[in-house]
Design brief:
The complex is a heterodimer. By secondary structure, chain A is an alpha/beta fold. Chain A is built from 18 helices and 8 strands. A 5-stranded parallel sheet of chain A has the order 2-3-4-1-5, with helices on both faces. Chain A has a 3-stranded antiparallel sheet with strand order 6-8-7. Chain B is an alpha/beta fold. Chain B is elongated and about 100 Å long. The chains are: A alpha/beta, B alpha/beta.
């Protein structure tokens, strides 16, 4: 069973997202982008795919992962290392000879920049920082190049930096914003991270440093994409299935993150294996019952969920805990989710005063979304994980 | 899951020391191959994953989660052996194991240096050239001189270079992944999130209470494992990683979690047969004979397996520990064998207790004294500690794999019990009050007598001859079966009179018959006298007399149930001066009559015994399992 349930999906393991990739390339013509969305939607896999497809779109792309860094100087050095001049010029030379979108893009860039690549820009790194010279040099070198700088785990790095050196973090964010907003720059940035960038910036009142970026919120798979992935993975596992299995499996998952689809598929395959062992059979098609069995197995592993409940008891203030638990219990009971209005109505007994109720609900939802319990899509609040939802319904629903 | 005999004629290969059996680290490759029979599906899946992971994709990381003794170490060791023995896999993969002390590392530099060391060790055991090993060793030594911050990158680069050069990937078998990841965290001043009522806008959530950690190393490790095509992490942990379920943590939903669950009855049967093949059975000369003997023993008395599973909780290590009790058979001295095993485990269990600070040790002791799952509130009351304190100690004990949550008997609520049941037995036999110890002793005695009773039943039957009171008694039972109750009563009265005529109403020999006859005739007090007499004899030690009395009670319970007076006998047992001793029978009789609530609410060891009795009374259940 080689499909990913935690690692990134690359090559033949990468499915779908055709529309998102298309939108991305269009957006990058004139925008810098923040790629946002809950964890386990495949943001890093998408970034890797962008890198792979970039040359055909006229970009020299690099993916820089900042999760291991905690100093600004190290980040700048990492960018320097990832984008040496030799690589950029080599790529440009090859791209000029090519035909199609890459050549068109380079031609367009050269027209916009009469002084040639790298000319006529005014870098503005903060003058007082220890890293300003390093930053200015990087900015000067890259601004006019058709390079796409994809920065993964930016939020992980930024949170560490804010905790350690808030002023430095503000300087960095300010410098990056100035760079992005400069006239005629050709390079583009894409920022992403496991921790939500937008919520991190909001929490620390730093949103203005990023309001120039287009927020591209990655959505779950469409039903068709998820089913296509299931069919392809079953085929790669050489496992036949009853015709209704892919659709049924996706229906059980609900919120179609590729991770959760694969998780249920993996456990369903294990269920088939064990059924065959019990019955002394081989190579039988996967049935709807196997999916149910796989689902129950995932749900039966208490250790998978126990921390989710314990964490609330530990982290939520005692006076807010009943409301938070009530919200989760209500949402768990409705697989299709609840609107804010419906939730407010259900909290009447806990907080009778309407304004306070709305405020407390907003506060609770913000935290629950931040911590990955819930998500609001299409105006409805629902659990991200179908398993956590059912566990909650069984153990904490009331 | 079939278990193949090691060899038809091969003599049983006995280990050099008894402890070998309980310590997979000491098993030879041959022993590992023979004994490993119950986690085959998980092993096959891992091997399959290794075969099917494309060379240009980062391998999926895996984490086995299971309580102590659930077979994590064995599985990792078996995986390494399987890779080494498969030419195709061994060409592409090299499994690396680590000494236990290497699970506590202070940084990524140390971790990757340990991987390098393990790689060099593995190469030394292989056909690698001396020059290559020396060169790698030299480079590894040079790392120590590098700046600490640079060591991780340099060591990783060396590892990657080796992998590229040899076109091989490494399987990192990390037995205590939880410990290792914990060691990579470092406490810092930063605080953790907290919701407050005052928070009316998202920005106000930034208030914090608990200290946070610097988890840079964890994020770096995650990045490496996500990116590297060369490293496959196969870990084990006795607890679920909190970070795996915390949304903002590096390893959130990162591993493919595989729970190692308690063994099923079939698994236990396979394990016992495999152990017999490797370590032998009393009276068997070869592995094949031992395996056959074990298979026959288990087929003849499947309830033994039920009892063993109840005591071990399906824990493979405890099964291996208690294997001796089975291997000894009915002739063995179960009680002294058990004591021997407890002595053997004492250093390990004692150290486990002593490692705990005072308060969690006290909480654990109270959990062990309860034996059954105990509610938090009851535990707090018993320990005399505030519930909130007990709760936090339980979280820690749960994280340490010492206690686990379990459903409270007769409810849907959760309580706590000790994860390793044999550890609990050890504690009770050594530390618990006398009354609790007696209960455990009685459990052991019961098991011994129960098996012994099989052999005694035939001897008892021989006494039933025509022309004596026993014959009338037997006829009486037949008439009861035919619904001719008046005629049956007449025969029972006749046999009672005959016994009195022969002066047997005061003798022990007459008690079985008189118990049954008086019970049928409604002479409760007289029946009670005979029941007490039998129970006193049966409970007075391990003499042949007591064994016979035990067998007699077993027969009486069966016959009374057949006659439809099982509940009357159960009620009589409740009035007996030895009601505690008779409790398993009493509960089984009620359960056989359709009321199993009292049995399900009884202490676990009493349940074990009652269920064994119940299998006698309701034979259809024998085939279930």
């Amino acid at each position: 069973m080689s499909f990913p349930v935690g690692t990134t999906a690359e090559g033949t393991q990468f499915f779908g997202r055709a529309r998102e990739l298309c939108d991305f390339w269009d957006l990058l013509d004139s925008n810098h982008v923040v790629l946002s969305g809950p964890r386990r939607l495949g943001k890093t896999s998408l970034l890797k795919r962008l890198v792979k497809d970039a040359p055909a779109q006229g970009w020299h792309a690099v993916l820089v992962d900042l999760q291991g860094h905690s100093r600004i100087e190290d980040v700048l050095a990492e960018l320097e290392r990832s984008l040496p001049n030799s690589k950029i010029t080599g790529w440009l030379a090859a791209a000029r000879k090519s035909v199609g979108r890459a050549a068109e893009r380079i031609k367009k860039v050269e027209l916009k920049m009469p002084g040639g690549f790298g000319g006529a820009l005014d870098p503005q790194a903060p003058p007082t920082t220890a890293w300003s010279a390093q930053a200015r040099q990087l900015q000067t070198r890259l601004s006019a190049q058709p390079v796409l700088i994809l920065i993964d785990e930016f939020s992980v790095f930024l949170e560490k930096l804010i905790n350690k050196d808030r002023e430095g973090a503000e300087h960095l964010l300010g410098w990056l914003r100035t760079w992005r907003c400069a006239n005629n720059i050709q390079c583009r940035f894409v920022f992403s991270g496991s921790i939500g960038i937008n919520s991190l910036l909001t929490r620390h009142k730093l949103t203005t440093y990023f309001n120039d970026c287009h927020d591209f919120r990655l959505q779950p798979f469409s039903r068709a994409e998820a089913m296509a992935m299931v069919r392809a993975e079953l085929e790669s596992e050489a496992r036949l299935s009853a015709p209704e299995v892919p659709e049924y499996l996706c229906a059980r998952v609900g919120w179609l993150s590729p991770f959760y689809v694969n998780l249920l598929l993996l456990e369903s395959l294990r269920a088939v294996r064990d059924r065959e062992a019990e019955q002394g059979l081989q190579a039988t098609p996967m049935q709807v019952g196997d999916v149910d069995d796989g689902y129950q197995r995932l749900l039966a592993v208490r250790s998978r969920f126990i921390h989710w409940a314990q964490r609330l008891e530990r982290d939520v203030a005692p006076q807010e805990l009943p409301l938070v638990l009530k919200v989760l219990a209500c949402v768990a009971g409705k697989p299709e989710g609840l609107s804010h209005k419906q939730l407010q109505a259900r909290l009447h007994a806990i907080e009778p005063e309407p304004d306070a109720r709305a405020r407390r609900l907003e506060s609770a939802l913000w935290q629950l979304e931040e911590d990955g319990y819930l998500s609001t899509d299409g105006g409805r609040v629902q659990f991200l994980s179908f398993l956590l939802r059912d566990y909650w319904q069984s153990n904490h629903g009331r | 899951m079939a278990v193949e005999p090691v060899s038809e004629t091969e003599p049983v290969r006995r280990p050099t020391g008894t402890t070998v059996k309980y310590n997979p680290h000491l098993w030879t490759d041959d022993e590992l191959r023979d004994i490993f029979v119950v986690r085959q599906a998980q092993l096959d899946e891992l091997l399959d994953r290794m075969r099917s992971t494309p060379a240009d994709a980062a391998p999926q990381a895996t984490l086995f989660v299971g309580a102590r003794g659930m077979g994590k170490t064995t599985l990792l060791r078996r995986l390494a052996l399987a890779v080494r023995e498969d030419a195709e896999l061994a060409r592409d993969w090299l499994p690396l194991s680590f000494p236990e002390e290497q699970y506590t590392v202070s940084g990524l530099g140390e971790l990757w240096r340990n991987v390098l060391d393990a790689l060099i060790d593995a190469l030394e055991r292989s056909a690698a050239s001396r020059a290559e090993i020396a060169e790698l060793d030299r480079k590894a030594h040079e790392l120590a001189a590098a700046a600490p911050a640079a060591q991780a990158g340099l060591a990783l680069a060396l590892i990657n270079h080796w992998c590229q050069q040899h076109q091989r990937r490494l399987v990192l078998l990390i037995d205590s992944t939880d410990l290792l990841l914990e060691g990579l965290k470092k406490s810092t001043r930063a605080p953790a999130k907290k919701l407050t009522k005052a928070a009316s806008a998202p920005a106000s959530h930034a208030s914090h209470a608990a200290p946070a950690v610097d988890d840079s190393a964890l994020w770096q490790l995650r990045q490496t494992l996500l990116e590297s095509k060369h490293l496959m992490w196969v870990g084990a942990s006795y607890q679920s990683l909190e970070s795996h379920h915390a949304y903002d943590q590096a390893f959130h939903d990162f591993f493919d979690l595989i729970d190692l669950r308690p063994l099923s009855l079939d698994d236990m049967r396979d394990a016992l047969v495999a152990l017999a093949g490797r370590f032998g059975m009393r009276g068997a000369e070869t592995s094949a004979q031992s395996m056959l003997a074990m298979q026959n023993a288990l087929a003849a008395r499947p309830e033994r397996l039920l009892a063993l599973r109840a005591i071990t909780g399906g824990n493979p290590r405890t099964t291996a520990i208690l294997y001796d009790l089975f291997a000894a058979g009915a002739d063995g001295d179960l009680h002294s064998d058990l004591r021997g095993l407890l002595d053997l485990m004492t250093p390990l269990y004692k150290a486990r207790m002593e490692q705990l600070p005072e308060q969690p040790r006290k909480v654990l002791a109270h959990v062990m004294e309860a034996w059954d799952p105990i509610a938090l509130r009851d535990l707090a009351q018993a320990a005399g500690i505030a519930s909130s304190t007990v709760s936090s100690q339980l979280v820690r004990l749960e994280q340490d794999g010492l206690v686990q949550k379990a459903t409270l008997s007769g409810t849907r609520r959760s309580g706590y019990q000790v994860a390793e049941r044999f550890f609990n037995i050890w504690f009770l036999m050594r530390h618990a009050p006398r009354r609790v110890r007696q209960r455990l002793t009685w459990l052991v005695e019961f098991m011994r007598l129960w098996y012994r009773a099989d052999e005694l039943e035939g001897a008892i039957g021989e006494r039933i001859e025509p022309g004596n009171p026993y014959a009338w008694d037997q006829q009486g039972r037949l008439l009861v079966g035919l619904g001719r109750h008046d005629e049956a009563s007449a025969l029972f009265r006749r046999s009672v009179d005959a016994m009195a005529g022969q002066g047997l109403e005061v003798s022990e020999k007459g008690s079985p018959l008189l118990l049954q006859a008086h019970l049928w005739l409604g002479n409760g007090d007289l029946a009670l006298q005979h029941l007490d007499r039998l129970a006193r004899t049966a409970s007075t030690g391990s003499s042949s007399g007591s064994e016979e009395a035990f067998a007699v009670i077993r027969v009486q319970v069966f016959e009374c149930h057949q006659m439809g007076i099982g509940i009357r006998l159960a009620e009589l047992m409740a009035r007996s001066e030895l009601a505690d001793f008779l409790l398993p029978y009493q509960l089984a009789l009620h359960a056989a009559a359709g009321s199993d609530g009292p049995m399900m609410n009884a202490a676990a060891e009493i349940q074990v015994m009652a269920k064994a009795v119940l299998l006698d009374l309701v034979p259809a259940q024998k085939s279930q399992g």
